[in-house]
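Hello,

Our lab assistant flagged a job as stuck in the queue for most of the afternoon. It eventually completed. Since we weren't sure the result was trustworthy after the delay, we are filing this so someone can double-check. Below is the sequence as submitted and the structure that was eventually returned. Let us know if re-running is recommended.
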Amino acid sequence: MSETPPRDAFEALVEQAQREHADYRPADVAVDRLWQVVARDDAASARRAWTIRALLGLPLAAAAINVAEPQLLPTRTVAALSHVDVLAVVALPATAVFVSLVLLGARTAGAQMLLRALLWSTAVLGALVNITDPHVVPITALAANLACCGALLALRDHGLEPERYRGSFAPIAHHGVLTLMMILAVADAQTLVSWSSGMRWRDVAPGLCGLAMIAGIVGLYRLQLWGLLCNLVLSVAVAGLALTRVLDLPPVVVAMLCTTASLQVVLAAVVLRSIRRGAPAELPHWARWGRYLVWGAIVGVMLVGVVVFVVDPAPHCEQQLD
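-- returned structure --
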């Protein structure tokens, strides 16, 4: 988030513009109003940044409590969880949230895309943890879900201005397509690595697939064509391995991987078609309402996280004692 320049520095910029363009003669009142607009926008950006930092601090605090004192937060299980058990579950989402905090002030388009991808994937992962293993860290998973969704709603499109894009896609690609592709890629990679780490890496195959997908994510971060192609191939390959049961994953995770792979194929086709035609990559007409669809999806993920937390599909402690 940029800082408002001092008033004298702002007036110096106006004087420089006057020297470069002889016909540029803004009135003093116009300069004053322009500076007020810049200051007001920057103040709003600062408030937004601190709001997001406060939201993302909640899951980090919950994760730290879970690791330091596993029994301090309820875990819906009879046996006490060890520090290593809890650390294996919360380490990856906590790291993703921390990296998101670091990327919050980044000025490049790739960093802003990665920021949104990390928030989306962590929000979805929080819901998945409570769906597939609700007796481990339900409160921390819910905090990650709600905090990341709230941060996404606060961010909106800030930081994704077209002038920030520098790379193979800069002249041709719609930023919404690339952002969505990175979100899907990070969600897949984080889910796979989290699944292996949650099992203390007894089954390393999903985690290795997730680590391999980082190559495509790096390419998308740099806005390079090879990153798009690498990400597409790896996404389809991982979905195929999950569908054929080579990767031992729960049905809900297999369904998610197949869905994201299908979307990756469609989005990659949109970008590659635009490269061939030399025209900007545009989403279909039905997707022009994409902003509202995204907001609806964020609220939907929040509702899923809350519902899964309230309606616990796992047996309760009293039932486990019988």
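-- support follow-up --
The delay was a queue issue, not a problem with the job. The result is valid. The chain has one domain: 53-321. The chain has twelve helices and no strands.
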